[in-house]
Amino acid sequence: MSDLSEAEIWYEAAKTVYGSTHGREKYTVAVAQAIHALIRANDALTVKYLGLRSKRHEDAVSLFGDLIKQNKIESKFADRRKLLTKAAAEKSDFDYKGIEVSKTTASRWLREVERFLEMVRTILNV
User: Fold this and answer.
1) Tens-of-pLDDT digits for all 126 residues of the chain?
2) How many helices (H) and strands (E) does the chain have?
3) pTM exceeding 0.85
4) Could you tell me the CA-to-CA distances from 96 to 19, 51, 68 in Å, in that order?
5) Three-state SS annotation for 15-32
């Protein structure tokens, strides 16, 4: 399975959980899954253009920066690094600490990850 396909599945799972009938904790789970999608989508880029995959969540941020620095992807996408930085910093809050997330926050994460996925699809011509 390709990294992008896996990212799409993580993202679809996040949307499914977000729209489920479960309680408020569904928003925390949806954000955690969306972050997994984000990191896997980034891996799709870094594996293709750098031959490297993030081993830790923080690696995703630096590898994305390498894509920009090495002109592997257009600099107009550089601002997307902020989302990876935020995801790496907050991922354990959602995955391991179970920090409560509002519907609004979860919705924002889903939109941002969708934009990142669209960027990856555009760069990879998929």
Assistant:
1) 799 999 999 999 999 999 999 999 999 999 999 999 999 999 999 999 999 999 988 899 999 999 999 999 999 999 999 999 999 998 888 878 878 999 999 999 999 999 999 999 999 998
2) 5, 0
3) yes
4) 22, 30, 31
5) HHHHCCCCCCHHHHHHHH
